[in-house]
Amino acid sequence: MENNINSKVLDKLTKICLCKVISKATIKKAIKNGAKTLEDVQKVTGAGSGGCRGHRCTPMIEDIIKQELEKEN
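^ (2Fe-2S)-binding protein, sequence as received from the core. Prediction below:
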């Protein structure tokens, strides 16, 4: 249980989109709520719409989507 709490805290603190200050927890919540593609996540969260236009966060978002969708199966 403690590991689960720690990972939730880390997810809230880990910023995936630095330009828009969007956390890993926000990305995971979007996926849990039905976002299945990079475009879905970007539309819901605003990630990838900052100054770098997703150059920094897109690969990380794609990895998170893959990990979260694998958990569902």
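The mean pLDDT is 94.
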